[in-house]
Amino acid sequence: MAFIEARPYRIQDRAAVRQICADTGFLGQPIDPVFEDRELFADYLTGYYLRFEPQSTLVCEVDGEVVGYLMGCRRPLAYQAVNNLVLAGRALIRCYARGYGPASRAFLRWIAFNAWREIPAAPRTTPHFHINLRPPARDVAATRRLMELFLESVCRSGHVRVCGQMVSFEERRTDALFERYGFQVLHRSEISKYRNVYPGRVFICTVVKDLSTGPGLVRR
Questions:
Q1: 210: Cα separation from own chain's centroid
Q2: Does residue 174 or residue 33 have the better pLDDT?
Q3: Of residues 123 and 103, which shows the higher confidence score?
Q4: Parallel, antiparallel, or unpaired: how do β-strands 57-62 and 4-8 relate?
Q5: 73-101 pLDDT, tens digit each
Q6: 78 Cβ contact partners less than 8 Å away, ≥ 6 residues apart
Q7: CA 188 to CA 168: how far, in whole Å?
Q8: Which of 48, 66, 150, 176 has the fewest CB atoms within 10 Å, counting from its CB?
Q9: E-only strand ranges, 63-113
Q10: Secondary structure of residue 3 in the 3-state scheme
Q11: CATH 1.20.5.320 fits domain 4-157
Q12: How many angstroms from the chain centroid is the CA of residue 206?
């Protein structure tokens, strides 16, 4: 039986976390068919968190190997204003310097012209989080351990709610799953960036959990 452990992020986990980000970036599969620049993609989804709020990041180990992570942000406005602006400039330079292919260019166009319209709204001053896991850790136990540690930390900091934005497709991460653990689905929006590479509909859901009665993930 595998030994699963959730623990705080350490600086030596950085390479593993970034690798997981790229290996799970396309609906749980490698991001390469959608965007070829793994380094920039990992910067886009992990750069702010690992540089400015590493204390809000957790990792999941299975038998001593890092196979997943949860990244939290308690300063959402700083994240939006600084990280995205810097990455936009880098993406433009690298796009022409490296000669990105059609799929990668389409991905960048989606970020520039569609992301702000398609990604659903989230409470602007509420701490948020996102999770990525490799197949060995994609089970209820691993996800629950990561979320419980994060929610306990957020509660200790005095926050009364937390939000997340989750990708939902086919039967993965339905409203019933979120509600089972005390999250309320605020918004749901279909996103178009995968239409050329995935046959089904893909949504992003904004979910919120009230922490005023405690951080527990009580199954409903």
A1: 20
A2: 33
A3: 103
A4: antiparallel
A5: 887 655 556 677 777 888 888 988 889 99
A6: 48, 52
A7: 9
A8: 176
A9: 65-73
A10: coil
A11: no
A12: 12
